[in-house]
Amino acid sequence: MMQRVPEPELMDAVEQAEAYAAADFSSPNGAFVEQVLAAMPRSTQRLLDLGCGPADICIRLARALPRLTVDALDGSRPMLDCARRALGAEPRDLSTRIRLLERQLPDPTLERQAYDAVTSNSLLHHLHDPQVLWQTVTKVASPGATVIVMDLLRPDSTSAAEAIVARYAADEPEVLKQDFYNSLRAAFTPDEVRAQLAEVGFSHWAVTVVSDRHLLVCGRVSADQAAL
After folding, report:
1. How far apart are CA 149 and CA 121, in angstroms?
2. Contact predicate 136/107, CB 8 Å
3. What pLDDT, on a 0 to 100 scale, did the predictor assign at position 124?
């Protein structure tokens, strides 16, 4: 198994953010939103999205649930600039339900037990300490909150990582291809994620492989866990 090689926590170069925002992630993003909508009660009203990037997933969720409000958090200003442009193209009744937050985890200003759903897509592999994500969840999630996290899956070898980049990003800019390769090498395996979850009492949550390059974590926060 290829050893993990951490990458920078933030995609804070304008070129990186622009390339990411312009890339076609409609298939994985759409699949993730379907997973969220299947797991989350339709009555969900307040959601926190960690590592929102250009906010495509937040927009998709807000379109699907007209009563949903979203706090969309990202530490990269260039990425949030892309998100602001995307929100500017949406109807006001949708864009005003999404609040962009320029924050880095851990963030002590996040409200305790404030959210009845927490989502995150492609943030976990950026974190040098993955417990930052799971500990944030224990703080901000209300009792019974739905938590859905999708992230990249670390391949077995560098050659396998190169093959995935060639398969899915062959026509993308070089900066995006390099970022994708680095992210695959920085990603975790399902067993590593299960071990992370066990540290914060989430060992009963499901960790499943949902594509040749993605894993999905799905669970609910109990009253005891939300009080930690």
Report:
1. 6
2. yes
3. 97
Q: Which CATH superfamily is domain 14-226 in?
A: Vaccinia Virus protein VP39 (3.40.50.150)
pLDDT at 228: 57
Residue with tokens 């990411």: 20
Amino acid at 92: R
Other Cβ atoms closer than 10 A to 108: 6
Contact 152, 125 (CB under 8 A): yes
Instruction: Say if pTM beats, i.e. exceeds, 0.90.
Output: yes
Residue 115 and residue 46 in contact, taking contact as beta carbons nearer than 8 Å: yes
Phi, psi of 181 (to 5 degrees): -60, -45
Q: Give the residue ranges of DSSP H helices in the chain.
A: 14-22, 26-39, 56-64, 77-88, 92-95, 131-140, 158-169, 174-186, 190-199, 223-226
What was the pLDDT predicted at 222?
84
Beta carbons of 189 and 154 less than 8 angstroms apart: yes
Please state whether the peptide bond connecting residue 91 to the residue before it is cis, i.e. omega within 30 degrees of 0.
no
What is the structure's pLDDT at 10? 64
Of 9-13, 14-18, 117-121, give the lowest mean pLDDT range.
Answer: 9-13
Contact 57, 32 (CB under 8 A): yes
CA nearest neighbour of 214 among 15, 35, 5: 35
Residue 213 C-beta-side C-alpha neighbours within 13 Å: 21
